[in-house]
Structure formats: structure tokens, C-alpha cells
Specification:
single chain; Aspartate Aminotransferase, domain 2; globular; Aspartate Aminotransferase, domain 1; 2 domains; 360 residues; alpha/beta; seven-stranded mixed beta sheet; four-stranded antiparallel beta sheet; 14% strand
């Protein structure tokens, strides 16, 4: 705390990101859900051919080449796409744009009680009342819990994090049908790793209150450039643009825009790496289950696993860390019995399994 901070900052509880290794520290990093494979080769071509003289000029304010690439992939128009510095910034702008401050309506935004921990952080910071809706047994989101509620909005991650559970598209449709007068946000950061799932973006032309948020950090291997996007009705996108332009008219730099466009449009490479991660996820899930772990049916690029009785989650987390393997442990009720493990390369996951066997 500081006497120079305002009351908002003095009372803030910021998000705590996954641990980052120190300079030169060699670890197997399975704690922040990064893609284990490099970006598309098209990204290298962009960087090799980029004219450094262009950096003296401001970038396109709307990141229009990225918007056009996203629109092409999802069958939308440029006007249905908004681009920001990572999906976290996009989510923050959604909170500012769509969810009413609690002293205006007294209503809450509904979010799952076990989900992306940025949601309550955003809510507190932007004075939005947040109601945590309990997950059902087995970490399932029940759409009925979000129907018939007097709320100011709804936000769900699909697949959910850290549980890796996927809601069927029909469940999202049920929530939308039951809440036509409030914004419904679907955070699809991990949706590209879900087998057979059609993005909720397919519903945008049907529901004017739907906003879908995605990131380039996961399935596109671009966590280092900080770029994400939202898709929705043109009216929603206009609102996000107004919020962004109130403090930063140039959110996407020139290099990031070119890199993002190249990665998004290289569908063959995207599919190849996506399928590789799915295959490795299935293998490591089977291996962990054979060792006595309890797992959800992961549809993300990580697994959510409860260790067998002979070792608790925190002890296993610490022991693996001492061996140079970083995974994610959450010291919170209910989920403190589980570990979130990013799907890495086949070699990384084999090393993980061997290290776990030594602990059991």
C-alpha cells in the first residue's frame, strides 16, 4: 500500500500469473498453457521481410488486416471483429463496455465459481458486482443455473479453465435464449483444442447479445506478441471500439498485426499443431489415469488431474518443481486437490510421467 495510490489500487487484488523461470534457468515449463510448438513458418517469412522503416509510422488503428483474417476464418465481416493486446485486454474492455457498475443497477454478472480468476479481478476493479455460480459435481457448468436470472450479464469460459470441461454448443444456445436482454460472453481461449466443437461464433448472426473472445496465445503459438480478438454483432464491436479509443487508439503494433495475420491464415499449420497437441493430451491422460489420477475429459491444451491417495497435489507440485518441471497448483478450496498440467511435446510429457512415477 502507498499513500500515493488511490483507494482503488490500495484495495486491489491483482491476478497472479503462472511462475516464470529465471534467466538461463532450464525447466520443462508446463504451467502457463503455452503452445509447445513454434508459430507458423509464415510468421518467420513476415519477420524476415518486414521493413524496419515502417516502425516510424503508427499502426492501423483497428488492426484491420487481423480483423479481415479472423472474419475470413469464421465467415463474418470485418465489422464483427475487434482486436486488442491479448484476450486479457479484450476481456477487460468487455467488462468496461457491457457490464453495468453495481451502483447503477445492483445486478451481478454471473460467472462460474471455478473459472478464469481474472473474471472476479475485472469485476472488482471496474465496480461490477460478480456472482460466482457453483459448478455441478464433476466440474460441469449447468446452463440452467444461468437461466431465469435477473443479472447484468454472463461470462463463461468454454472449455472452462482450469477444469478443461467443455459445454456443448446447445447449452450456450440455451443460455442465450434465456437471456436475450443482457450480454453473454463466451471466452474461447482453449476452444481450438476441443474435438468436434463448433465455435460459438457460429451463433453471432443469430444472437445480437453474444460476444465471443479468443486469443492467439494458445493454438497459434503467439503468446509473445499479445494479441486477441472478440467477435460479435456490429453494435457490440462498436461499443468495444469506443471503450478502447477512450484511452488507446493504437492497440496493435505493426509487427504484431502482420504476424497475427500470417498465423491466422495458415490453416494447414494450425491444424497440424492442434492435432499434435490433442494426440499428446490423449496419451498423457491415459498415462496419468493408469497411475491412479482422476481426470476430467479435457478438451483444452492442458489436463486437470487429481493425484492418487499416496501423494497430495501440493507435495507433487513442489517435488516436480525441484526436478525442474513446472506445473500449476492452486491453493484454493476444492481445487487445491488438483493440478493443471499443460500439454507439452511428447518428450516433455514422457519426462513428466517418468518424474511422477518416481514420486509414487
Amino acid at each position: 500500500m502507498s499513500k500515493f495510490w488511490n483507494s482503488k489500487i490500495n484495495s486491489a487484488t491483482p491476478y497472479v500469473a503462472g511462475e516464470q523461470p529465471g534467466p538461463g534457468q532450464k525447466v520443462i515449463k508446463l504451467n502457463t498453457n503455452e503452445n509447445p510448438y513454434p508459430p507458423s513458418p509464415k510468421v518467420r517469412e513476415v519477420l524476415d521481410n518486414f521493413d524496419i522503416a515502417d516502425l516510424r509510422l503508427y499502426p492501423n488503428t483497428g488492426s484491420d488486416i487481423v480483423r479481415d483474417a479472423v472474419a475470413k476464418v469464421y465467415g463474418l465481416r470485418r465489422e464483427n471483429v475487434f482486436v486488442g493486446n491479448g484476450s486479457d485486454e479484450v476481456l477487460a474492455l468487455c467488462w468496461q463496455t457491457f457490464f453495468e457498475k453495481e451502483y447503477n443497477t445492483g445486478k451481478s454478472v454471473l460467472v462460474p465459481d471455478i473459472s478464469y480468476s481474472f473474471y472476479p479481478v475485472f469485476s472488482s476493479f471496474y465496480d461490477v458486482r460478480c456472482e460466482a455460480v457453483p459448478l455441478r459435481e464433476g466440474f460441469f457448468i449447468d446452463p440452467d443455473d444461468y437461466c431465469g436470472r435477473d443479472c447484468c450479464g454472463i461470462a463463461v469460459a468454454n472449455p472452462n479453465a482450469p477444469t478443461a470441461r467443455l459445454m456443448p454448443l446447445d447449452d450456450i444456445r440455451r443460455i442465450l435464449d434465456a437471456n436475450p436482454d443482457v450480454p453473454v460472453l463466451v471466452d474461447e481461449a482453449y476452444a481450438d483444442f476441443a474435438e468436434g466443437y463448433t465455435s460459438a461464433a457460429s451463433l453471432i448472426k443469430e444472437y445480437k447479445n453474444l460476444i465471443v473472445v479468443m486469443t492467439l496465445s494458445k493454438s497459434y503459438s503467439l503468446a509473445g506478441i499479445r494479441m486477441g480478438f472478440a467477435m460479435g454483432d456490429e453494435e457490440l464491436i462498436t461499443g468495444l471500439t469506443m471503450a478502447r479509443d477512450s484511452f488507446n487508439s493504437y492497440p496493435g503494433d505493426r509487427v504484431a498485426q502482420k504476424v497475427a495475420e500470417a498465423a491466422i491464415l495458415d490453416r494447414d499449420y494450425w491444424e497440424k499443431t492442434r492435432q499434435a497437441i490433442i494426440a499428446t493430451r490423449k496419451w498423457v491422460s491415459s498415462e496419468l489415469a493408469s497411475l491412479g489420477f482422476e481426470l476430467t475429459d479435457s478438451q483444452a491444451n492442458f489436463v486437470w488431474a487429481k493425484p492418487p491417495e499416496q501423494i497430495d497435489a501440493q507435495t507433487l507440485y513442489n517435488n516436480l518443481k525441484s526436478k525442474g518441471i513446472l506445473i500449476r497448483y492452486f491453493n484454493k478450496p476444492v481445487i487445491n486437490e488438483y493440478l493443471r498440467i499443460t500439454v507439452g511435446t511428447d518428450d516433455e510429457m514422457k519426462a513428466l510421467i517418468n518424474a511422477i512415477r518416481e514420486e509414487l
